[in-house]
Specification:
The complex is a heterodimer of chains A (116) and B (115).
Chain A lengths: L3 E4 L2 E4 L5 E7 L6 E7 L5 E8 L5 E2 L8 E7 L2 E6 L8 E9 L2 E7 L3 E5 L1
Chain B lengths: L2 E5 L2 E5 L4 E8 L5 E7 L5 E7 L5 E3 L5 E5 L4 E6 L8 E8 L1 H4 L3 E3 L3 E6 L1
Classes of the chains: A mainly beta (116), B mainly beta (115).
């Protein structure tokens, strides 16, 4: 149980285009999901906390208009990287916590974004 | 505010040897502590967690960790390393009372297992 999926697993796009990444909790409901960014050989950096039915809470220094987050259902959150540039290339990982069991995050497999 | 320090960005052991990955934390309230493992180009998998109760917690793949409040530590151990244990390991802390499951991660420790 507690499986989280991400789609796509990798994506290559041209500079200036937008890319949407989906995060799904497959066998549980998740009121809260989290989006992380990870650079090579580094730890995870929390970008934002996504709450179902409300606006996401962004960490300091993360551009809200650049990284659009939508959490429209209890099993799906999306991250859209708008007008992507090469410096946005990274590994993006989402996680989810079970509704009513909020002590643990379960992580997705990650999405590798490469912007040319 | 919380913080996590993982001592040693790289640890190398021989197959069959003891694995010890160190983690120290800082938290103003009783912490919840986690160890996650990450294989190349994959997400994080939960190894074990401490929330309350017994301070020695057992996880998957033969790993265990002991919460020592006096030392503010949560070191990860495994008696006998296997080649498949080679991965990146992250220690993390959350403060349930003030920020729910929001995690603060350590910088990670790369474990290499030599044949």
């Amino acid at each position: 149980g507690a499986v989280v999926s991400q789609h796509p697993s990798w994506v290559i796009c041209k500079s200036g285009t937008s890319v949407k990444i989906e995060c799904r909790s497959l066998d549980f409901q998740a009121t809260t999901m989290f989006w992380y960014r990870q650079f090579p050989k580094q730890s995870l950096m929390l970008m934002a906390t996504s709450n179902e039915g409300s606006k996401a809470t962004y960490e300091q220094g993360v551009e809200k208009d650049k990284f659009l987050i939508n959490h429209a259902s209890l099993t799906l959150s999306t991250l859209t990287v708008t007008s992507a540039h090469p410096e946005d290339s990274s590994f993006y990982i989402c996680s989810a916590e079970r509704t009513a069991y909020t002590d643990t995050q379960y992580f997705g497999p990650g999405t590798r974004l490469t912007v040319l | 505010a919380q913080s996590v320090t993982q001592l040693g960005s790289h640890v190398s052991v021989s197959e069959g040897a003891l694995v010890l990955l160190r983690c120290n934390y800082s938290s103003s309230v009783p912490p919840y502590l986690f160890w996650y493992v990450q294989y190349p180009n994959q997400g994080l998998q939960l190894l074990l967690k401490y929330t309350t109760g017994a301070t020695l917690v057992k996880g998957i793949n033969g790993f265990e960790a002991e919460f020592k409040k006096s030392e503010t530590s949560f070191h990860l151990t495994k008696p006998s390393a296997h080649m498949s244990d080679a991965a990146e390991y992250f220690c993390a802390v959350s403060d349930q009372e003030t920020s729910g499951s929001r995690l603060t991660f350590g910088e990670g420790t790369q474990l290499t297992v030599n044949p």
